[in-house]
Amino acid sequence: MTTTVVILAAGLGTRMRSKRAKVLHRAGGLALVEHVVEAARAVAPADSIVAVTGHQAEAVEELLAPRKIRFARQKKQKGTGHALACAREAAPPSDLVMVLYGDTPLLSADTLTRLRDAQAGSTAAATLITTSLDAPAGYGRVILDATDAVRAIVEEKACTPEQRAIRLINSGIYCFRADLLWAHLSEIQPTLPAGEYYLTDMAAILNTHGHRVEARHVADSSELLGINTRIELADADRLLRRRKAEQLMLEGVTIERPETVSIDSSVRIGMDTIVEPFARILGETVIGEDCRIGAGAIVESSVLADGAIVRPYTLIADSRVAEKAQIGPFARLRMNANIGMDARVGNFVEVKKSRLGAGTKAQHLAYLGDAEIGDRVNVGAGTITCNFDGVKKNETRIGSGAFIGSNSTLVAPLEVGAESYLGAGSVITEDVPKQALALGRARQVVKTDWIEKRKKTE
Ligand code: UD1
Ligand code: CA
What we know:
Spore Coat Polysaccharide Biosynthesis Protein SpsA, Chain A; binds calcium ion; UDP N-Acetylglucosamine Acyltransferase, domain 1
């Protein structure tokens, strides 16, 4: 049986109180709608998934473009039933149509697979997922008949007081027989006062044609959380990050105080790596085995090889760290910093768009930008590469084994040869050949008995 998945993502999300469309808001490192597309991939190939866009459609489509799914536009947001109708043209022919809402990011692949299998093996016209909530406010209530089939779904606004007390809610996850859905979808009537077409009316419509609608109960209702407000967004973020941390721990990563760390769902971490409290590991970061990510460190879109140590309060973005290198505490790597094997980057050192070779050390208080630094170089405290001349960025090259004295100022473009020495406090403006000593500072003057002599002139 073939399945098409339609994801409704055209609404504004008024209750978010945001300039940005709700489905673009992020939780667990991805936009809400991206999580839904990922879950949908469990039951359909990318070209059988249709996202219905409307509010900020260009932004939503641009975000989802790499996932190679289809799009349909809903020009005016006239309700979930109308949104689904807008997808009909773009939807490839199929036996089943699964409908998901773009604001339910916790959905698991497992739940969708089971829903699809249940509908595929049943004679019902549709199956939908329900759960019981202690606080069902905001959700549509599901009314069952004596045989436990769905008689109707009633939106909260339309509920009688007795219906409002029902705790069985509509999760907004449905699997329809495609022929019956498309045959009867146009029978949904607009609901006053807003004149919206509620997809939820389909249950009663299918019933009037003598078809059965099944309800599948899910015990773990956290998966079905629909995000309408920023409070629910924070709940989803917390749950997604907990889910990610638990998955990593089962795979052999130690996470201390996991409730305090934020790890995006796209991150990969190797076995026996230790993540300390309050670390944030974001984007497409890949971390090897036996690494340590210190407390409060933020690692984003970077690659750390096996045995790399990131000490507390270090920021690493868009960079690479080789085996057993040690970074921090309080260091910053950014914009394609590339740190070699066993290298050290210590406190208050910033490395931007630079390569440090194997075993090279820059332990304290330095700025290394646009620099190509060889192996086993000692970069003294306070070293600065002056990479910007006011117009353009210039490069500094330092050969292997060089010794850069403390507080050196390297005015780029500049080349410092291998195994050369720069005297501490030098301003180096000209290239230094290999194995040389370069000094660029005023010679020290000592005036002996200076105090004594000054007294005499007074
Ligand atoms: C909906 C259901 C409700 C269910 C709840 C589960 C309806 C009428 N109600 O309510 O029974 O309990 O979800 O979370 O379906 N959308 C469009 N076009 C529109 C309107 C909405 O694409 O014209 C999209 C939104 O972007 C959103 C999704 O549909 O992703 C759901 O819309 P929302 O307004 O959040 O519905 P709820 O009021 O939560
Ligand atoms: Ca919702």
